Each structure stands twice: as C-alpha cells, then as structure tokens.
Amino acid sequence: MYERFFGLSERPFDLTPNPRYLVLTESHREVLMNLEYGIASRKGMTLLLGEAGSGKTTVIRSAIERQPERVHAVHLHNPTLTREEFVEMLASHFKLGARAATSKATMLIELEALLRARRAHGESTVLIVDEAQSLSQELLEEIRLLANIETDDEKLLSVIIAGQPELAERLNDPSLRQFKQRIALRCELRPLGAAETAAYIAGRIRAAGGVGAMVFTREAVALIHEFSRGIPRTISVIADNALLGGFAAGQHPVGSLIVREVSRDFDLSGGKRPTEKLTAGPVLPTPAAASSAMAAPALPAVAKDVKEDRAPLVARPTAPAERRGLDAARPERIAVNETPRRRRLFSFLWN
What we know:
By secondary structure, the chain is α/β, with parallel strands linked by helices. It has helices at 26-40, 56-65, 83-93, 104-120, 137-146, 166-170, 177-181, 194-207, 218-228, 232-249, 256-265, 287-295, 340-346, and strands at 45-50, 71-76, 124-129, 158-163, 183-189.
C-alpha cells in the first residue's frame, strides 16, 4: 500500500522470518556464528535463548542457508505435544514409514538408518525445536535421547533448542541435569541498543530498496527504540504501522508524533516514560484529509512547534557531490538542532 510513496520495492517490516532481512547486529552475528559452527561441526545440542520476537527463527534459518553442504532441517514450531504425538510428528517430518508414526521403536530404527544414509552422502540433518520453554519434562528427555544418535566420531543429528529466557531457569532443575550436560553450545539474542535499532531499521529499508533518510526522522527512530525496548518484532510492528500512518498523512520522512500515536494504539509504554507531551488534536487526518494529503504529499502533518521532526533521519543531499552512496548521506549534513551524543549514536549510518 505505502511502498511506492516511500520509494520501496516491497514492505520492509513484515513479520516473516525472511533471512534476506536479517540485520547482523553484534548480538545476531555472535549467535549466527555459534549456530553455524554447531551445525557444521555436528556438536549435538545447541541452546538458543532470546525474548519473544528477538529474531531466533530468522537467525536459525540464516545459519542453515549458509552451510556449505546440503542440510535437511526439520522445524517443530509447536512443542506442546504428548509423547505419542511427538513420535508421530517426527515420523511425518522425516518422511518415515507408516508404522513409525505409531511405534517409537520403529521410528528410532528408521530415523537412525536415514541419518546414517545422509551422512554417507555428505549431508547433515538438523532438528529445530522452537518455543522450547513450553516443552514437557518427558519431551525434553526424548529430545536428549535423540541427540545421542551418533557414530564413534560424531553426532548424526544436530539439535537446536530455541526458547525464551525462562528456559534457562528450567534447565537448572536437578531433574534436567542430564539434558543440561548435553548442551554443547549456548548463545543468547539480547534486545537491541539504540544504535542497533537504527541499524535494524535502516538495514531493512535498504533491503526493500529504500533509503532511510526518506522514511524516518532521527527522533522517530529514537522513539521506536524506546517504545519497542529493542525487541525486533515490536520494532517492525511499530515501523510498519508508522509507515501506514505516514502514507495516510502524506508525510515523509515519518516523524515522532506518528510513532507516538502508533505506540499508544498498541499500548506500548516503552523502556522509560516519554518526556514530551503530545500536542492537542489528532495526529492522523480524517479520510477526506488523507485523500487530499496523498494528492499533495508536501503538506506538513506535524505540529509546527515540534522541533525534533525538522531533522530527518539523514538530511537530504543538496548538491551532487554530497550524494556519495545511494542509501546514506554524509555526516557533515547533520541538522543544527542535533546534540553531539545523537550525532555519535547515528554516525555509523553515513559511513
């Protein structure tokens, strides 16, 4: 809907785990390297922790795609299964025989034969269990035993356990000490910092064919970070709805008032209480006004006394010599009302 208005080829903030939109922050890069190593070296069991919406599924898919050899990945998204349903699910995903779905012994025999055949052909297999904090004790034990399928030299099945931070607390239970001992690698996705949030937004806009300078102001990006608390999924929700609001208002780059309105609609309080007050009156126009604004997008949609929206995320170039790079302006064009701290925070976006 709003893609053409902002110069985008597609929507940059859809909530799908598309590896093409993975923005490698320091935390994501560290996790990606751990996952790649765990898969390639057949380490057995890897534990990935992260808050809901932190990008666990996306980074796992990226790690699998980057493997030099063929990787067969089985992804279990819903772990709230009984033991019998778990066996049936594995038999179905691994495409085992009909009897394997009803007999655990048959499933294990056929699965090990399949894994050995794949290994003989230079292929590997990864079992990914998502939302693992919801796993029952008996399924955790079943997964531990699956990770024990091995030769004298290596594991035949790599297992990636992805879950929210409370999973780490569960694994401290003495009854799960054997499971915890089998974890060869452990990594965690942390919430994004302010600079990482800016990189995440700019990177996804760039991947969608756009330029961050033309989409969000600096203050809008700062508020998106504040209200999202650095969680990538929440960042995407706010950004996507803010772009829709900016399109309706005929405003680009999108300013902080629209971000505030979206965050208020989603009942997001942010990491700290915002210090500025909302101006009186609606932020978004009525349908008639929106239609008029679309016809003449130059009309301002932000209150005149809101100073922070006068400076875009990256100022627009004013001379051909300044257009070095299609998706970033140079740091010397920072608006005069930007503080030195904010200039340092976003300076990496221009280099």
